[in-house]
């Protein structure tokens, strides 16, 4: 089966998932992002690469935060940006997701950034669009959030450049997390030898070990000697019910406290894709502590998204 | 109308026939095999050299979408599809709109189908009114109107007491209860097999236990109530094993599998192909192997198309939101041939699962080439290759996981009640 | 065609540059050849001079045709561009498009007092009204040929001539 993300000659056409992307392409994204980090520190934080191009942020699921980072990234590349929040009501009026895309294509959009509550939505759109249009998945259901996964890996590489000698632990709701899936695929593709997931069984997907990770249920055991701790967000509605009894018990077992952090390597870094639930996944002392790289993650997020957009825009099918 | 079919290879699993013989048809019946009755003069002769002459297929599940879903398919389009696929008798589940829970609706459907002079339609009545799992339907009246069994289609009866009563009531009259075993709470919100692929793609899973748990409940209640049960669309290895054990204990239980599940697994979902969104979900390789084995050893009685035409608007959606189901009437026969070929089992044995054994479950006189039987049959060119494409399908439903696949075996002629109802262009 | 010795040409460049260096001069090399030149030049100028590098990937005018190059390096201008006399350094001067992109990028860092251009070789073929002030060698070449500066592991330069297509 042809990888729907690549052009026939193997260049990145869409970014839908970190899974199945060659290591060379992942490295190219990270290296290019490195160049864009410098751009943000200049007096003029803009480069003319996407001048005259139109980037369309289509959010079928609301997320001001993610949308903003894509918007800044596109604008720093000199693209014009259209933001569209498609609430489900206009969809229930009979317009299908592909109708929406066709409409925007008719307005000469060059790139779509898609956020949707259903896994596979970005793939569907990518299979549908004209050859000159590029699709970036900004999160589809539980499936993937590749730019977030890449910015996390970028952050890791900045602090721990030797990827071949790392132990990374993902803690929390892997089951519902598109970020976790994207991180796992990116890390394993880039040759990180040990990726651990730490969670209760209710928050792990079936056969999670087939993604190439080691499974731990005991956080103290799982954090031992790790270099990187990635905390995952726990959605409010999942804190009490059949998945978990309460936020308190979750924090007791899987919240990252200074004591638990001490089990990791002394120079371990702590990450979180945001927004954080302080006192549920992470203790404030850790979130604001000196091992936390949560704010740099946000900064690098823009550089990584600029890198992805500029690579895609230059690769037509 | 007297028809002579010459030089074809006759395969009739029911009578264990696999030989080159002529077949004589008059007044809607088979009047001679090998030799015709004295003075038989054919008004039409079909040269079946190189063709297989088969009993018309009996499909245990084909949704015709009428009444209520005419934008997906119409009775006429789907009945055309049936005969184009060599299917001459089909059972349709009651999940129309309105639901087949009243005798008048069943009579209307039978009447409309009959007017088309294509395949025979055998409706399954709803077990509960509007499939709501609360109040029983008038099973006796529905039977008189033409229902051959009672089904909940894809809707579970969550209240086990209602399920118990339904089986008791059906057992009173000797009606068969058709259930697709799926425990609704475990399956809730799921769109794919709860396995490796769903985990990778981030799709909500339906665990195999949803099927086995339901089978366990159904079999337990069946044992207590003495009801005859037909389990629809088995999908798991464990499910097959449970049915095998129940049959060994002598429970009156039969079951079927969809042809899709004999060919495909969760891996065929690929990059979220909504055509592979089926119910039950496509499962693992081990399950597929066990299903095949189940058909081969007879644990699974019948193979059906599970024909479910879906319109593009409903299908071209993200995987989880895409409506489940695939068109199948025109693919059933070639896919059964392909399956037999791949499993290396004799074609007549495979064909039994779509003819005589399926007819036995419906308790209808069909799926055989016996002398004096109704002349429902199809002539298949087993060597003809064709590509599955929207443009070649008669069905209004164009979505199937097999789109683009090259299949071998195309129906050339179909006869129902001795009338030529389909002839390939 | 006989190419001049690259090391000798470099020496010419060095000598021509020396008198132009003032307190406010910065040398900015354009990746990759220009950066090699700057790094060899700096210790030979006899006084501290600010160093910068530019990768013009994000400013190329042929992005729509050729896309983003697989290899790009961060630009580094670690000094305040404002009121600085900047000497752009590149290996081979051809169409002038690279220099235009470099100047555009430079202005995104601030407003320099002046920009001049020093190149090892002017091979002719300019397509823009841009002229280098300092040229170590002039080697007119047909469009079909491509002159490249290479650096061996010991840091020494040599030229390579290739057919473009």
TrEMBL record, chain A:
Provide the Aspartate/ornithine carbamoyltransferase Asp/Orn-binding domain boundaries. Answer: 165-311
Which enzyme class, named as a word? transferase
User: Which residues of this UniProt protein bind carbamoyl phosphate?
Assistant: 65-66, 115, 145, 148, 274-275
Where would I find the Aspartate/ornithine carbamoyltransferase carbamoyl-P binding domain in this sequence? 13-157
Listed pathway(s) = Pyrimidine metabolism; UMP biosynthesis via de novo pathway; (S)-dihydroorotate from bicarbonate: step 2/3
Does the record carry Transferase as a key word? yes
User: What GO CC annotations are associated with the protein?
Assistant: cytosol
Record's catalysed reaction(s): carbamoyl phosphate + L-aspartate = N-carbamoyl-L-aspartate + phosphate + H(+)
* GO BP, one annotated term: 'de novo' UMP biosynthetic process
SUPFAM superfamilies cross-referenced by the UniProt entry: Aspartate/ornithine carbamoyltransferase
Which keywords does this chain's UniProt record carry? Pyrimidine biosynthesis, Transferase
InterPro entries per the UniProt record, alphabetical: Asp/Orn_carbamoyltranf_P-bd, Asp/Orn_carbamoylTrfase, Asp/Orn_carbamoylTrfase_sf, Asp_carbamoyltransf, Asp_carbamoyltransf_Asp/Orn-bd
Per UniProt, where does L-aspartate bind? 93, 178, 233
EC number from the UniProt entry: 2.1.3.2
**UniProt cross-references to Pfam families, sorted A to Z:** OTCace, OTCace_N
State if Lipid biosynthesis is listed as a keyword.
no
What's one GO MF term for it?
A: aspartate carbamoyltransferase activity
Q: Which family does it belong to?
A: Belongs to the aspartate/ornithine carbamoyltransferase superfamily. ATCase family.
Described purpose of this protein according to its UniProt entry: Catalyzes the condensation of carbamoyl phosphate and aspartate to form carbamoyl aspartate and inorganic phosphate, the committed step in the de novo pyrimidine nucleotide biosynthesis pathway.
The record's subunit annotation is: Heterododecamer (2C3:3R2) of six catalytic PyrB chains organized as two trimers (C3), and six regulatory PyrI chains organized as three dimers (R2).
Q: What is this protein called?
A: Aspartate carbamoyltransferase
**Origin species:** Methylovorus glucosotrophus (strain SIP3-4)
UniProt gene name: pyrB
